[in-house]
Amino acid sequence: MLVFALIWLGQLVSLFGSGLTSFALGIWVYQRTGSATQFALISLFTTLPGILISPLAGALVDRWDRRWTMILNDAGAGFSTLLMALLLFANQLNVWQIFLGISAISTFNAFQLPAYTVATTLLVPKQHLGRASGMVQVADATAQILSPTVAGLLVVTLHIQGVMLIDVATFAFSLVTLLLVRFPRPETTTEGKKGQGTLLHESAYGWSYITARPGLLGLLIFFAGSNFVMGVVSVLVTPLVLAFGPVALLGTVLSVGGSGMLLGSLVMTVWGGGKRRIYNVLTFTFLGGLCIFFSGLRPSVPVFFFTAFFYFFGIPLINGSSQAIWQSKVPPDVQGRVFAVRRMIASASLPLAYVIAGPLADRVFEPLLAVGGPLAGSIGKIIGVGKGYGIALLFVVMGVLTVVATVGGYLYPRLRLVEDELPDALQNI
Q1: What is the DSSP letter of 348?
Q2: Where are the alpha helices (DSSP H) in 90-128?
Q3: Containing domain of residue 137, as a range?
Q4: How many C-alpha atoms does 192 have within 13 Å on its Cβ side?
Q5: Quick check: 209 and 337 in contact, CB under 8 A?
Q6: Do both 265 and 134 map to the same domain?
Q7: What pLDDT score was predicted for residue 286?
Q8: In contact, 239 and 412? CB cutoff 8 Å
Q9: Which stretches make up the Major facilitator superfamily (MFS) profile domain (predicted)?
């Protein structure tokens, strides 16, 4: 656990630095182009390359030493950031170079994330995997809360170039923590021998492993659907809140949500998720659906504060519990391949959500609840009529879909009993 804690600290610092750069580059692109589309493309290039290369990356992670994989990929991401900072210092940085740079970082992360997960499985005793997942969520929450605030201050004093150099320094700190430790090698299991072969075969093996286990496949599909809803909500929460209050309110709502996420992460770290972690996944997804539903049904400042806090409070408990299930049920020597495919499938719905959320709100739901709109005299009497109420109606729909999907997941025995039907791959007690 001490070795894991040291690695975790390095990754926490690195995540914070990456958050600084992400915020600073977003400001630079928007100020330079004045285009919301160009700004939105940053999110696309941050996620899509990593998703596409995940199966290949997972197969290579299982072949390579996990520690050196993390070292080389931290170095690659740090070099990409340094290169963009130097181009900015020379006044030679263009938007397309930023897209190329963040695509490279996304690709490096496709190797980094499964290697980090496998390292956690190898270093942490089975009964503490839930707590370790909680610690990872703490790092994510801390970076999400602190990075935008600190970056906003640093951009004024150190300019964007200085912020990016701080990020490079955080990568260096992470490298030092990795150089100070050693990872145990996973034992070769029957599944590991079965998955050996050509790189193409090993890349596809993660999908074969999951589809042969209906419980894990059901959990994966459940998360893909949940991520789609989360993607729609994350894109539209800004216009929804701004329709009912000033920009300062949006910042406060996001801060309240971040506080809920941090508290949920701490709870997961201390608690560990208990013995029936699948119930955490289903229960807190259900509660999250209710939060989305009520934020649309009664859009107002107090409701936004309440629902943001409890929605984000549940995210670390959902993700941490799911991560512990996967880590305990998948042999460590094939986790790179399996987790890479898992990430690809679960995250593939996010770009779709990013693409359709805006048109759905602007062209379908907002006109429905505009003054004199088709639903103004019916649903409009319950929710309200005017700017922002169409997005609120879309939130109601997303909330209902989440609740229905959660009930369906509970009624599907392979998902509900996934922890009972699949034997533990880890024998350390």
Answers
A1: T
A2: 95-123
A3: 1-178
A4: 15
A5: yes
A6: no
A7: 97
A8: no
A9: 3-417
Sign of CA dihedral 190, 194, 196, 199: negative
Residue type, 220: L
Query: Which residue type does 338 have?
Result: V
Distance, CA of 113 to chain centre: 11
pLDDT at 314: 95
> Residue 162 sits in a domain of what CATH number?
1.20.1250.20
Are residue 148 and residue 246 in the same domain, yes or no? no
* 298 in the same domain as 162: no
Last residue of a domain, one of 132, 162, 178: 178
User: What is the residue type of 158?
Assistant: L
Q: Are residues 335 and 291 in the same domain?
A: yes
- Are 391 and 238 in contact by the 8 Å Cβ rule? The answer is no
For 184-229, what is each residue's pLDDT tens digit?
A: 887 777 776 776 777 777 778 889 899 999 999 999 999 999 999 9
Contact 42, 49 (CB under 8 A): no
HSE at residue 360, side-chain half, CA atoms within 13 A, is 19
Does residue 198 belong to any structural domain of this protein?
Answer: no
Task: Give residue 428's pLDDT.
Answer: 42
Cα separations in angstroms, 204 against 59, 195, 343: 8, 9, 14
Q: Which pLDDT does position 34 carry in this prediction?
A: 64
Regions in the chain scoring below 70 on pLDDT: 30, 34-40, 192, 195, 247-248, 251, 426-429
